[in-house]
Design brief:
The chain is built from eight helices and seven strands; from the N terminus they run E-H-E-H-E-H-E-H-E-H-E-H-H-H-E. With 264 residues, it is of the alpha/beta class. The protein has a single domain, classed as 3-Layer(aba) Sandwich (Rossmann fold). Helix 2 links the parallel strand 2 and strand 3. Helix 1 packs parallel to helix 2 and helix 1 packs across helix 8.
Length: 264
């Protein structure tokens, strides 16, 4: 395995990297020599599995750190940025993989089911959208980004399609893409590239929380040209590619990583 990132002592800060796409990306980047810092939010009950996953990353020999805290909390963000102060100019990648939001529907599907409220939109946007901008600004101001840095965020086809129970997340994904485009425009003079990865339907813990997720999986299998679902490793490979030197001229893009699912 070529560890091309190690020679530059590059690091990646992954928001939401203890499971799913974020964890798969952390593993992939670590395999290629990139130091990993993960900000995650997990309960004590889930930490055994999380710790085991982190140990696997540590065995690659790259610098590794993790912070179990609320990524949307201002004081927590400032504390992490301060703790990373010694890593000035080393962060090649900021990866946004936070999946915390409301999955209520706009209309009740059954008796006693609560419906989507404005506060649900606010909460979902706070975690799944605004955090991208807040962390990008603070990392840039702290001088943590490498001269050729990559800001990446995961979006979904649901940002442009209407799925039941997905209204708040759909709005947050659409706004996330808009913020990414402006980061690509306004942070380019500082050497920062920004792109979104539009993952196909992927069997992750986040997907399982969506009511009717089985129907989404069946729909993906039916229309995907390769007849299979996207895997976290498929998406992690795209993160790795966008972090390579050869991807320096990709900026302000939304890259579908779904085997062609979006064209069918």
């Amino acid at each position: 395995m070529v560890k091309e990132f190690a020679q530059h002592d590059y690091r990646a800060l992954i928001l939401g990297g203890s499971s799913g796409l974020g964890l798969a990306s952390a593993r992939k980047l670590a395999e290629h020599g990139m130091g990993i810092c993960i900000v995650h939010r997990d309960t004590r009950a889930s930490m055994k599995a999380v710790a085991a996953a982190f140990e696997q990353i540590k065995r690659t020999g790259v610098p590794f750190s993790a912070f179990n805290l609320d990524a949307a909390d201002t004081d927590s963000r400032k504390a992490v940025i301060e703790a990373l102060g010694a890593d000035q100019g080393r962060f090649r990648c900021l990866l946004h993989s936070i999946a915390k939001g409301s999955l209520r529907s706009m209309q009740p599907a059954g008796p006693g089911e609560s419906t989507l409220k404005t506060e649900d939109f606010r909460l979902t946007m706070e975690y799944m959208t605004y955090t991208l901008y807040d962390w990008t600004v603070d990392m840039k101001d702290a001088g943590l980004f490498a001269p050729d840095a990559r800001v990446l965020a995961f979006t979904s086809e649901g940002g442009r399609r209407a799925w039941k129970h997905y209204g708040a997340v759909s709005a947050s994904k659409a706004a996330l893409e808009a913020i990414m485009r402006n980061i690509a425009l306004e942070f380019a003079p500082y050497g920062i590239r920004a792109n979104c990865i539009q993952a196909g339907i992927t069997a992750t813990p986040s997907l399982q929380k969506i009511p009717g997720s089985g129907q989404l999986e069946a729909f993906a299998l039916q229309r995907n040209p390769f007849g299979r679902m996207t895997t976290p490793e498929d998406v992690a490979a795209a993160v790795y590619l966008l972090c390579k030197d050869e991807a320096a001229w990709i900026n302000g893009s939304i890259l579908p990583v779904d085997g062609g699912e979006h064209i069918c």
